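Sequence only, no structure available. Ideas?
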Amino acid sequence: MLQFEASVLWNAAVSEDVYHLGLTAPSDFGRARPGQFVMVRIPRAPGALLRRPFSIHKLIFDGGRRVSGFELLYKTVGKGTHALINYRIGDTLPILGPLGSSFSANKPWRRVFLVAGGIGVAPMPFLADRLLAKRLNPEDCHVFIGGQSAADLLCQDDFRALGVPLTLTTDDGSAGDQCLITHPVEAALDRSPPDALFACGPMPMLACLAGFLEQRGIFAQVSVESMMACGMGACLGCALPVRDTHAPYRHACIDGPVFDLDQIAV
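Reply:
I predicted one. Tokens follow.
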């Protein structure tokens, strides 16, 4: 874990309420793994006492393999994120991270599904990059993204640049098929099941995935979306029910945010 002041490289609107933020980082930040997160203190936020958690979206390299920064993809949902959009190039933000557990991206997977709901897509480009770096063929890394409308279907260009298959759905039919993203995922599982499935999104989506993955015996990991006050297990505010009668709760910040899907009580 590192604690440092990051300089803003860019802070650009992606849609009406989603922004893409680039930040500098020391080279040791290269230890970050897909699924981990950072805690960002936003001094300009009203009553800015607590840091806010954000998934690591991508790493930034200096032209070689040396990490010089990282990227965040965030949605404006409260006072902190609304204050964050006012940061400009050269402004600084206090960072704590990388923190938490990560996806199992280093195993020799032959076929993988990535499933994202809305802003849950944030950690997926980093994960896809790492999987392909481990010699997974792009055509064997199928990405599924769902949202309420076309504006919620983020990172499409990132995945198309990687050459991976992409399936899109929206609740209102404004892009892709008009259905929940779990529908084409289940159909694809029946046609050609993967070795592993990685997902991030709202809990109802994860619960639906758990329902039909449990009978298929497919390895699945999910990144849970949870409010965090400290990011280090001190406040115990991000408790998550799990399937363990001896210790029925885990904490998203130190035990997660990535869990094996069969661990959590969704």
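The domain at 112-263 is CATH 3.40.50.80 (Rossmann fold).
Hope that gets you unstuck.
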